[in-house]
Write a structure and sequence with these properties.
215 residues, alpha+beta, Chemotaxis protein chec, nine-stranded mixed β-sheet, disordered N terminus
Length: 215
């Protein structure tokens, strides 16, 4: 279940996409978030809702949004192939990742003290579900075939976790679609904050811009 939230478009996004096109992508993200929330709720046997407060385009040279300064983060990477190529990255702080992993593993809160193999496997699956839901919604909207590779997980500073973006990370070398993602968990209630990044190859982003058929 998603919690829709109206948030004005950022200036960086509107320089690359019209407000109407950015709103269309925001609606696609909400659809994907709804599918992901349903899948995660079924898997964990608890109610999980996902909100998409912000969808924006990070233009080349700008900083990728940070979870928080000086916080170790988790990045779940997947390569994207099909009609366009690139990669996806699911970002969240380590402490939030541990809470999400506990839900995935059906454990009690604060029973996971570190990112062991089981926790990492659970977060890879969560990232796979989230990316798959977002890309399914996007592929239907763009009428494109998009596929994902198996996920891989990295931890570290923002720069270390985002080294797949290139030598200048955490600055974007080419446009990035950034979907702010909030998880609302119940029993016990808590909220977790992260980002889903769609990082198309440079030519692929031109194809996305052309395919968003909204004035």
């Amino acid at each position: 279940m998603t919690i829709p939230r109206d948030t004005p478009s950022g200036q960086a996004g509107t320089t690359l996409l019209s407000t109407a096109r950015l709103d269309a992508l925001r609606e696609v993200a909400n659809i994907g978030a709804g599918h992901a929330a349903t899948a995660l709720s079924t898997l964990t046997a608890t109610r999980i809702m996902i909100s998409v407060p912000m969808v924006n385009i990070v233009p080349p040279g700008d900083f990728v949004p940070e979870i928080a300064p000086d916080v170790e983060i988790i990045a779940v990477h997947m390569d994207m192939s099909g009609d366009i190529s690139g990669r996806t990255i699911f970002l969240l702080a380590v402490h939030a990742g541990l809470r999400l992993a506990e839900r995935m593993l059906r454990r009690g809160r604060e029973t996971s003290r570190n990112l062991g193999n089981l926790e990492q496997s659970a977060l890879n699956e969560a990232g796979n579900i989230l990316a798959g839901a977002y890309l399914t919604a996007l592929s239907e909207f763009l009428d494109m075939r998009l596929m994902l590779s198996p996920p891989s997980l990295k931890t570290g500073s923002t720069a270390e976790a985002l080294d797949a973006l290139g030598d200048h990370a955490p600055r974007a070398e080419s446009p990035i679609l950034c979907v702010e993602t909030e998880f609302f968990l119940e029993e016990p209630a808590e909220s977790l904050h992260g980002f889903f990044l769609l990082v198309p190859d440079p030519n692929a982003f031109d194809a996305i811009f052309r395919a968003v058929r909204v004035d």
